[in-house]
Design brief:
This protein is 5% helix and 55% strand. By secondary structure, the chain is mainly beta. Strands 1, 2, 3, 4, 5, 6, 7, 8, 9, 10, 11 and 12 form a 12-stranded mixed sheet that branches. The chain is globular and about 40 Å long.
Length: 165
Amino acid sequence: MKILSRASTDTLARLGLTANKGINPPNVEGLYFVRPHLLDAGNVPGDEPGRRFPDVELRLSAQRNPDFSIVFTGSNFVSKSDTSMATVIAGQGNDFTVYAKLKATDGDAYAIFGIVISGTRIGETLRDLRIGVINIDDRHGGGRFIRQGQGRVGYDADDVTARER
């Protein structure tokens, strides 16, 4: 299942996001909090590396490696409540990458975003966690979101994202 276009993943790669490849990702199910969540790089005018974003809540569940499926829900990736429309996981050994497409709403406006979460699972923690966010369809955004094609890569500043449950 293709979640993001090559242009979207290339944009995030140019911003420094490394996607882990492979067909045997580690189990990453759980609830995680990314705090403090800082900007590493972006192509949005005015973005400054180190800018702090609201803490992110990330819930990954129902991981099935035979078909690479995983359920992604969270908050503060784009809006107060983020639920994926489509999600897959890739990786090998302890390294993983989750690709998700979600609909973000603000009143009657909405936009479709791609989310890429990449890192390494060590014990009950995620390390080197990077979160890429890119607007992939802003036709109904009404100017309330970053523009289509714009993206950001953030990270967990303390480099340890512990599983809460």
